Amino acid sequence: MPKLIANAILFQLGWFACVFGGDGPWLLLVGVAVAVHLLWVSNWAAEGKLLLSVFLAGSALDSFLLNLGVFDFGEPRNLIPLWLALLWLLLATTLNQCLAWTARPWWRASLLGACAGPLSYYAGAQIAGVGLPYGTWQTLLLLALIWALLLPVLHGFAKLYRSQYEQSVRTRQST
What is the pLDDT of residues 42-61, one digit of tens each? Predict the structure, then answer.
């Protein structure tokens, strides 16, 4: 239980560092949070795949939404800023830890995603000065729909990599 609480606290500290610090030196806190997380997990290979997959998939999704005009960072750009991409990395550290309880049944992840996802974006947008050109409620509704589908999928990534790791351990033990 203390590790789960520490995981949630590290995530939140990283979130604040990203949103308040932008692309500045506060992002080093994200590196510390990820390093601590990796020290605590026993399956680095599986967790590393999960972190990378969520980071890339989430960054691609948000960059896609940016290019659709859902977000406005005040300057022309095709990719999201580093601070927003690192939030995906931080989220990945929670899937097998403090958010593991939402993996089953799947609707827990959908419900949490539909509620917490848009609220996190809204708070981040307000703090970081990110515009929502389609309007606040329209954007939050779109994000709720996306996150209701997305969080169960991310838990599926976590389960897949965890299963691959467990299979490789069983294979090594039987040889």
Answer: 788 889 999 999 999 999 99
Handedness of CA 13, 15, 16, 21 (dihedral sign): positive
Given a contact cutoff of 8 angstroms between Cβ atoms, the answer to whether 74 and 131 are in contact is yes
The residues with which 72 forms a beta bridge, in sequence order, are: 131
Buried b (16+ CB within 10 A) or exposed e, 5-18: ebbeebbebbbebb
How far apart are alpha carbons 118 and 115 in whole angstroms?
A: 6
H-type helices in the chain, by residue range? 2-21, 28-40, 44-67, 82-94, 106-128, 136-174
pTM confidence score: 0.94
**Measured at the alpha carbon of residue 21, what is the angle toward residues 46 and 61, in degrees to the nearest 5?**
50
Burial class (CB in 10 A: 0-12, 13-18, 19+), 102: buried
